[in-house]
Amino acid sequence: MNAHPVNAVVPATSRVDLIAISQLVTAGARVLDIGCGDGQLLKLLEATRGVDGRGIEISQKGVNECVARGLSVVQGDADSDLVDYPDDAFDFVILSQTLQATHRPRIVLEQMLRIGRKVIVSFPNFGNWRVRAVLGFTGKMPVTRNLPYSWYDTPNIHFCTIRDFVNLCHEVDAKIETSMVLHRGGQKSVPFAAALWFWNLFGQQAVFLLRR
What we know:
CATH class: Alpha Beta
Largest sheet: 8 strands, mixed
Helix content: 25-40%
């Protein structure tokens, strides 16, 4: 992969999944970031990969923050607005930490695979042993570093494990090119294809690179 452009100012980010995602995107690619929030990932990709980036964000506040950063972002809903994009419109379509907050994850993933030559998805792993332990021993929905919301105000409506997502990929006939888990506070990333059961238990976050 090409290095980031000379003299580019690389934006700082505390989200290790965004760093992992940026390393999967090829230089100069056409990118659509779905649920782009305040534009942190798009800005990182512009600085490190020189991408032609676009974004879609459901909140007006997020759109305003993106526009203030000089990003090309429109307000829209992943559950309903992806049908408006033509086939193969982008080299990469990205959904970071948002799949579990959509109403129809399978349809969203199918639309992403249609409009992007490659798809990148990151999400928190609800199968992590800490999440299981909190629920099992306290009888309450867990609140962790990667799942920081109480049950009554969480945006997450579909609780997904790594194994669940792998099964979904098989159902929609998506090919997994690269898979990583981020663990131990997100400080390390490893491939897990050979030990799915292990990383489904110990991974805190997952990042997938898919294609049709």
